[in-house]
Amino acid sequence: MFQTYDDPGGPTLGRKHLPRLRKALKAAGLDGFIVPHEDEWQNEYVPPAYDRLAWTTGFTGSAGAAVVMADEAAVFVDGRYTLQVRAQVDNDLFAYRDLVDGGVPAYIRERGKQGQRIGYDPKLHSPDSLDRLRAAADGAGVILVPVERNPVDEIWDDRPPIPMAKVVPQQEAYTGENASSKRQRLGDGIAKEGADAVVITSPASIAWLFNVRGGDVARTPLPLGEAVLHKDGTADLFLADEKVSPQLREWLGNQVAIKPSEELQPTLRRLSGKKVKLDPSTASAWYFEELKAAGAEVIRGQDPVVLPRACKNAAEVEGSHKAHQRDGAAISKFLHWLATDGQTGKVQEIEACQKLEAFRTETGALKDLSFDSISGAGPNGAIVHYRVTKKTNRKLARGSLFLIDSGGQYEDGTTDITRTVAIGRASKEMKDRFTRVLKGHIALSRVRFPKGTTGHQLDALARMSLWDAGLDYDHGTGHGVGSYLGVHEGPHRIAKFVNTQPLEPGMIVSNEPGYYKTGAYGIRIENLQVVSPAADIEGGERPMLGFETLTLAPIARDLIVKQLLTKEEIAWLNTYHARVWAKIGPQLDGDAKAWLESATKPI
């Protein structure tokens, strides 16, 4: 089994480690220290050896930060983690603060005192975030102090091992383009921008650019390393020696110089006098400072890999279709199991996770989960990013809702799907809320939109039916998804927050509106969909982009209030279910096939 159910966090960590960190800060002449969730590669999912925030506070979510002062401390999380942080972090030690509304800069501005010295690790902060911190510090008279050695690392005596997984080739049958072509194409773009090279620090960008995958990050096949891509298409790739095999050297060819990680800093210094592009949203402030010290001219700009990686080519889209058909069969078997054995009221959240993972494993193609499954029964389903542990494990009680958000990593694609099902009989309120979520999901599936439209402009479609009832949800509606890469991928998204990246053909994005009643239940319906090329509409004046749904699994018909759906919404649902039956039905047999046929009948 890939997923484990021990809680690596919890209040004990903060109680144990906070006094030690304060002692270390005092010895270093610091009045405080900023502990972000991010690691040196700005990863969302951080390997245990780099999860300094969890070590300091006990909080294990995928976004957050902490500020530790001599006499007070605070932990910052967004709307996804307001319940989790209360369960994992001792409020007597850490004040709970909002990560988005002001965040750490606001805290420093409000709580900082004249002359205080607050430390930070420049390898863990982007230059943009550091600029905001400096502005806040200046306003409060606080002095921000960069540290060469992170004080958390200095006292972390039981630190997990640094990940050293082998880096392996990703075949062209899956990537649709060889690495040499990618490097040459992007190198030409660098030259047109007037730059000599670009420093690439994102592990996902490195994996895509060199057609490789790794195993340094759980649930995501990423190699932790860095690269310098030159305008002529040659590159320097920095990896720990333990990760490199003769097969990898042969795969990359003589246009890529594989160098040990220790050579990164000397290589950056040799870029003196060169024009070097660097992405301030993914590269830490340390890179900017190193290049500036070397005498390079730094050009701030988006990582050139980001957009081509997001716009999947034909091979990647076809791979995603295959992965979802395979995954859809596993999901359908699991939903059949939930509809039968899972209705007893005795099944627990962990058992459900294990059952779903077993069905995915039976495909023979599963490489990993794409994230730890969110298996939320009853009130646990209202915790948006809930992670079941042995301590929180609940029964799927009759008369409740069960929410399962899960995904798989396959060589040909990454999946992510959420389904909500009734255990026993659902209440009238549950069905009403479910149907409103479904209406938002359908609206975002059916929409046609002109070139240049961003996800921000579409977000309200998924919320309108909830808004009509005075309801909403506090998370984004859609995130990008990689091709056997991260389950969360930019630069596009669908959310209330402004995003300037237009949706373009080939982009894969989730569609996942929800509703959460704290202490009672949670509802979310999630499919992945790919942006389809612009096409004419009869009688229209300009071509319109749209979405093609990738995910194939039934949506709970017994939770739908048909009277709340329009004719167009009913037609969409029936068409979708007919497609599920056509694609998934032939992969099933026996009782599971019979159940799927019934579950996908028209309403």
TrEMBL record:
Coiled-coil residue windows: none
Gene3D superfamilies assigned: Creatinase/methionine aminopeptidase superfamily, Creatinase/prolidase N-terminal domain
Domain Creatinase N-terminal: 19-147
Entry GO MF terms: metal ion binding; metalloaminopeptidase activity
Domain of life: Bacteria
Residues annotated as domain Peptidase M24: 321-532
Residue span(s) of domain Peptidase M24 C-terminal: 543-603
Keywords per UniProt: Aminopeptidase, Hydrolase, Metal-binding, Protease
CDD domains reported for this sequence: APP
Listed GO CC annotations: cytoplasm
Family label: Belongs to the peptidase M24B family.
Annotated protein name in UniProt: X-Pro aminopeptidase
